[in-house]
Amino acid sequence: MDFEEAAQAWREDGFVILPGFIPPDELKSAAGELDLLFPSAEGFHDATDARRERFIGDQFAGIDYFPFASTEISLLAVNHRILTLAETLLEDDGFQIYGAEAWAKYAGASDYDQDLHRDYLGHTLLVPSTAPGFRQLEMFVYLADVPEEFGPAHLVPRKHTADLPAVPDRYLRPGLESRSRFHDGSGSPHLYGAQVSAAGPAGTVVAFEIGTVHRGTAMTAPRGARYTMHLNFRPSGVQWGQRRGWAYSAGQRDWFTFVERATPRQLQAFGFPPPGHPYWTPETLAGMALRYPGLDLTPWRQPG
After folding, report:
1. Nearest to 103 by CA among 140, 56, 148
2. What is the pLDDT along the chain (304 residues), one digit of tens a residue?
């Protein structure tokens, strides 16, 4: 599938599944540093990794936030293929990344079987829009193989959800009681019967809109371990699309290491003005040289 085919699927279904989108040679360095963030499957299940207790009991306990302890994984979050895909789907060369998380799940650590839901409550102050220029993009990036027994996401094509109101947001499985106006307790058989599995090999990218109905599924593989990234992008004009402010993390050592290795295009995705922008003056360049002494400022010193 090429980028334009991916964009068509994204527009029609609200998601597109791209198996092996990141080729092995571009994934290798990041996958090789997973142990800087998470226990291996053996380390967790054999209880030989002291970090294992963190992951038990809460399905979200396995999330690490950008910048990651692995610079290779941080750089993968803005891999050139991912940036080109985001630009194509959002139809905006000034798009920005507004969230990046790495997530480990381990069989038996928690119940990862989720209800169908939409993510928009944690991604916008408003509600989802399908109009060009206002769509927000999420991506799952598989850092290792995610077969069906490793709990891949299941997604529902838009043709089954286009008439759903903005509220409720979560569609509970049969037998669960609704306790919020954001929960639908009908069992939603038409939605659960329309799920599409996003199982795939390492390097797979699942791109979907914040209004796409989806869910995480149970890990059933004995001694299984699943490693993914969750990335969020918004068009340049969508100021109401929020998740995590990067300045909050910009004093961390891992942030400096990432910035000093990133390209101008990768940094632009985080909000750095591009080379040639009027922000870049002798004053600001001198300040940047002090703040990021390992960053080669040559691209930003070029006249616009």
Report:
1. 140
2. 799 999 999 999 999 999 999 999 999 999 999 999 999 999 999 999 999 999 999 999 999 999 999 999 999 999 999 999 999 999 999 999 999 999 999 999 999 999 999 999 999 999 999 999 999 999 999 999 999 999 999 999 999 999 999 999 999 988 888 889 999 988 899 999 999 999 999 999 999 999 999 999 999 999 999 999 999 999 999 999 999 889 999 999 999 999 999 999 999 999 999 999 999 999 999 999 999 999 999 999 987 6
Alpha-carbon gap, residue 104 to 229, rounded angstroms:
9
Selection from 156, 182, 155 nearest residue 171 by Cα: 182
pTM, rounded to two decimals: 0.96
* CA–CA dist 221, 173 (Å, integer): 22
φ and ψ at residue 63, rounded to 5 degrees:
-95, 130
Reduced to 3 states (helix: H, G, I; strand: E, B; else coil), residue 238 is coil
Alpha helices in the chain (DSSP H): 3-13, 24-31, 41-45, 71-76, 80-90, 189-192, 253-261, 264-268, 282-291, 298-301
How many Å apart are CA 228 and CA 153, to the nearest integer?
Answer: 11
Distance CA 126, CA 282 (A): 39
